[in-house]
Input
Amino acid sequence: MCSVLNVPSSSFYKHLKHKESNRSKENKMLKERILEIYNVSKGRYRAPKIQQALATEGIKISVKRTSKLINILGIRSIIVKKFRPTSSKGKIESRENVLNRSFSTTNINQKWVTDITYIHTLKDGWCYLASVMDLFSKKDSWILFF
Output
């Protein structure tokens, strides 16, 4: 077989007796542990946080080596950028003022007014409160969006 493949027989026997190096054994163990940490974090952690998690377990490894192993595994963290409101530079379309500040009505369901408010909460982030009011009955309806 060696002559057909044009490979020296000494290389074949060397390959048979080859033992796995300590570094490759350690890399296998680290890859398994990195995958566990990655899955526990639901894919959110990148190399620095994974390295910190390994350090708390007593495994000393650099961020660069962690990054290399992550690249070998082919995993990527889920990055969600925070919403930062920006001013729109487009032209704002003006609408006709239908009410003309005439807020009196003679019957129910003739005129409705609405408003939306942005509320920042620590737990849920931005929430939106939309209120709708009938001008005749002055009854409010509220809708809260998360």
